[in-house]
Specification:
Number of strands: 12
Shape: elongated
Structural class: alpha/beta
Strand order of the largest sheet: 2-1-3-4-5
Number of domains: 2
Number of helices: 8
CATH class of the largest domain: Alpha Beta
Helix content: 40-55%
Radius of gyration: 18 Å
């Protein structure tokens, strides 16, 4: 997906949620120069309000916000059906792996630490928008899958484990879809990173392990279907 694919009257709209006014203005300037429409908010609450008023194509979300922080905003967005599919790139001054993992677990699509190059940010935004456009075909549409007591419906983005509905983040849903699509096949951690996160450098082997643990926990007894292949990766039991 590229800004060149839309007409001037139908540009992509990006919501900027950032409480540092100077950075907010810099982001808006660079995005407008690249041909994006922008909407701004200085707090998490105002950001959620702006999403309700006009659903954006992508959200740039600061982690350190007053009152409701970025993680809580992301959690709220991904838990609501009408906003769960909006791509989110989190901005933060912190770069610890724990913050990256938390953001990805909540369904964030990318994660950039401050300070950052505007050119790199623009490239990452366009990459996420392209991913978002292709994601429907690659992960969210197709035949339902039923294996090991788990029923996965890509079109409805629904998962049932032993007949019980399970709420998953976008990342967890993609991970489960990948594993269930080929029961018995072992996927290395690197293959999971390249497929689910498109090789996003901030995602480490440890991040994948944490995501698998969270997915197993949500699936409860059915989570035993996700097997660890020591020293290699993971597979879904045939």
């Amino acid at each position: 997906m590229s800004t060149m694919m839309r007409t001037q009257e139908d540009l992509y709209t990006i919501l900027l949620v950032e409480d540092e006014q100077d950075l907010l203005e810099l982001l808006r300037y660079n995005l407008n120069r690249e041909g994006f429409n922008t909407v701004t908010a200085a707090t998490g609450e105002d950001g959620l309000k702006q999403v309700r008023l006009a659903k954006p194509d992508l959200i740039l979300l600061d982690l350190m916000l007053p009152a409701m922080d970025g993680l809580e905003v992301c959690r709220t967005l991904k838990s609501r059906e009408h906003t769960a599919d909006i791509p989110v790139i989190m901005l933060t001054a912190r770069g610890e792996e724990s913050d990256i993992v938390r953001g990805l677990e909540l369904g964030a699509d990318d994660y950039i630490t401050k300070p950052f190059s505007p050119r790199i940010l623009m490239a990452r935004i366009k990459a996420v928008l392209r991913r978002s456009e292709n994601e429907t075909n690659s992960f969210d549409s197709g035949s339902t899958i039923t294996v090991g007591g788990i029923h996965l419906d890509p079109d409805r983005h629904e998962v049932l484990a032993s007949g019980e509905p399970i709420e998953l983040t976008a990342t967890e849903f993609k991970l489960l879809t990948l594993l269930m699509s080929k029961p018995g096949r072992v996927f290395t951690r690197q293959q999971i990173i390249e497929t689910i996160h498109e090789g996003f450098a901030a995602v480490t082997d440890r991040s994948v392990d944490v995501q698998v643990v969270a997915l197993r926990r949500k699936l409860k007894d059915s989570g035993r279907n996700i097997e660890t292949v020591r020293g290699v990766g993971y597979r879904f039991k045939e």
